[in-house]
# Entry
Amino acid sequence: MHSGTHWSEESVCAIGHLPFAPVIPATYHKLLSTPFAPMEIRIYYEDTDCGGVVYYANYLKYFERARTQYLEERGLSVAELRDGGTQFMVVHAELDYRSPARYGDTLTIDTNLAAVGQASLTFAHVMRERTSGRVVVEGSAKLVTVDDNLKVKRLDKPTLAALQGPPDTRS
# Structure
């Protein structure tokens, strides 16, 4: 998934809502997707700050991995979508830090599709420490669909159906 492109208020208003309302996974009463098995992340020394606590920005990378897994478990390849002229770009991300994760911990990430627009998706993430189940971080990311020229485009029906469907368990 691509980031770093500045979106004007005009382009975002055309596909979503401004100002962005906080998106906290715990507030979703009905998620649009069937959850898959949580993704696991082991915390290595490289993931932490000098105090042995996970550096805050790394959670965004972990959520990115979980979204990619979410797509792959539904038969969607980021590379194939890109080659077909469809890319996803993050336009809003939000995290709520609940408790620290430390070197040596194993975390699980639950990822669900929380909202779908004509050209946007919002994913909800909850990260927990595997052994205790303690919530470490909750967050969300709103992505827009763009073409090769980075122009907003609608999601096609087959991709929408795959995104909202259950994981493929045939592997």
